[in-house]
Amino acid sequence: MKLNRRALLGTAAATAALPLVTRRARAQANSIKIGVLNDMSGPYRDTGGPSSVAAVKMAVEEFGSHGFDVEVINADHQNKPDLGASIAAQWYDRDGVDLIIDVPTSSVALAVAGVAKQKNKLHINVGAATSELTAGACSPSLIHYTYDTYMLAKSTGGATVKAGGDSWYFITADYAFGKQLQSDTTSFVTAAGGKVMGSSAYPFPGTTDFSSFLVQAQASGAKVLGFCNAGADTVNSIKQANEFGINAKMQIAAMLMFITDVHALGLDVAKGLHLTESFYWDLNDRTRAFTKRFVPRSPTNWPNMIHAGDYSGTLHFLKAVAAIGVPAAKQSGAAIAEQMKAMPVDDDAFQGTIRQDGRGMFNSHLFEVKQPAESKAPWDLYKLVQTTPAAEAWRPLADGHCYYVKA
Asked: Which residue range(s) make up the domain with 356?
């Protein structure tokens, strides 16, 4: 068979390209890709957003070279479960992502967790709160890292009831997170002999005027007003409660609040509030060291427990990859999760373990927001009230009924 000049040139070009294709394939086979999926533009932008991306990149840089490359990409899920699931599927199937991390908004987190389970890919959830992630929605390739609704309800809700707040009214974001947080808090309130006088669920996202819900709360006669929301919603609802004078008549319980929220509110409004986080920048020498390195990357948004969790979760993942090798890590999300559970978590942000059901086991800390006169700097905002050890902070393993956990 005779070949014309064009065919010969084409064959030569294809042959020349083979080494390049091979080199690319080898490089991809020896590299890890991390996708940070979160809210970059909505109510959870400051609690996660760009600062979470910065935290993940910081962990990658500090991990250094261990014989494989690491790439970080990010996307905005816009608090839409269908969009989050679509991005996750594309990342896992087409773009070669080995880990999806962060994913605030519990409805989105549950959708992404389903995709990760189906494809046996790793998902480390840091930003969402629903305790279902280690219960009905648990998976061998899912790790829930920093906090959840059970831990928040036990710490903040339990302390409030003990202090005399035995009748509650809830204002709740109407999606998986808000409903679960209200349910978990209600369990602790009623178990302690308290009662719930009523609740109002508001549409999420998009609600900015909480006045009608606040009027209903005030009319209930409850001692405690529990806000089962987060981010900008928490900031707006507490501001409006202050404007209505409700904080003078009811005790405000911010069931999920971050230092970024407190900073946005200001101490004149937030003073005296009790809240729970598993990380605070000024907790000890190691958290201060982490913060010193992080702040240049996020100077106007100091780290909360989500940002710190994204850093720690990424670093722990990369240590596990180094332990089992890139091929094994890329092949099975369950395998890399199992390795992460076998290793202690030890970095400047978090120290603890990953439990069999994927639950990150870390101490939780109840804080009181400082009075303006007590604060010595713009981010000097918390006083430590109490620390709950990891063994007591989280829902007992057996109570989650995670399907793959061995009895």
From this structure: 26-147+284-362
